[in-house]
Amino acid sequence: MPTLFDPVKVGALRLANRIVMAPLTRNRAPGGVPTALMADYYRQRATAGLIITEASQISGMAQGYLDTPGIYTQAHIDAWRQVTDGVHSAGGQIVIQLWHVGRISHRSLLPGGAEPVSSTARAANTKTFTRDGFVPVSTPRALRDEEIPALVADYAHAARCAAKAGFDGVEVHAANTYLIEQFLRDSINDRHGPYGGTIENRARLLIEVLQAVGSELGFERVGVRLSPLTTFGGSAPLDSKPQALMEHVIGKIAPMGLAYVHMIEGETGGAREPDGAPAMDWDVLRSAFPGAWMVNNGIDGEHARAALASGHADLVAFGRSFISNPDLVRRLREHASLNTLRADFLYGGGAEGYTDYPMLDESIVA
Ligand code: 8OZ
Q1: For ligand 1, is residue 65 a contact (CB within 6 Å)?
Q2: Rounded CA gap, 15 and 23, in Å?
Q3: pLDDT tens, position by position, 60-110
Q4: Catalytic residue from among 41, 178, 260, 354
Q5: Residue 37, domain member (yes or no)
Q6: DSSP class of residue 299?
Q7: Does the residue 360 lie in any domain?
Q8: Atom of ligand 1 nearest to the CA of 54
Q9: Cβ–ligand 1 contact at 19 (below 6 Å)
Q10: Residue 154 belongs to a domain with what CATH number?
Q11: Active-site residue flag, 357
């Protein structure tokens, strides 16, 4: 059985190990443009087998929080290039997470003060972070069916921008109750017509996005992130049949030749087995997918080793521990202690709590 430190082929990518840096929102891209500081941060973490960038909006309408990065203009491409060059020159590989927030946004963040768009015209019961601090999200308008082709084209355009910026691939963010999951879940999607109602219809947007992005980049450079049990404290109720929904999605994507599925097990950033959540049969899903299977959520070194040894997963993504330990791969290999996360510095700010976490051997800090 493989260990965390064995190389692995993931679609078109050859990874040096099975330890992945999870996508992590950090809000340090003023006006959506990545900075040299962001390049330092990612380069410090380039010993990961794979880095997945923080979620990055595919268009102006796709943004939902202050100072998250974009991947749709020449300025974004040029700025991300310093990130990909830095990671590659340090021997790492990096894919960008393509993100549309849908209704998790505020008009002050959107072009011309537009209303957010979603599968529904019902607002989410949550807040977002704007120039004026935390505010309730704005009420969305429901996308018309005729608008979907342009939305899918925005994903394809962002994928082209990602290739120009030097990324090794992309991850389509279909998790955490953003736009694609606003279509997937029957608790949110109240549409009629080709994108609402049946599981097949609710999954249609995701499948069209994956087809479009895969056609741009090659399907073996595309992964997808899913989160069937995430509620964010009840603000995003679960689908009524998460196992059936996921079985349908995996069944549709299995023949596409995607590089990987990235499954958030449990409540994102919370319990792996949330109280009252329906039981999921993860292994049924995994065995229906021919590509690499990545798992994430509150996984420590011991659990990660067990997940690989038992065949539960091919890859393990670490989030918070990669924020506070740029050399997490070495620390796992040496069973070394981990730095403590300084949570006050997660969202926004500068180098503090971002690029100043010490390496095990201080002398290798650049
Ligand atoms: C934390 C803060 C803002 C956004 C996600 C992109 O949950 C996010 C996110 C996380 O997927």
Answers
A1: yes
A2: 17
A3: 999 999 999 999 999 999 999 999 999 999 999 999 999 999 999 999 999
A4: 178
A5: yes
A6: -
A7: no
A8: 6
A9: no
A10: 3.20.20.70
A11: no
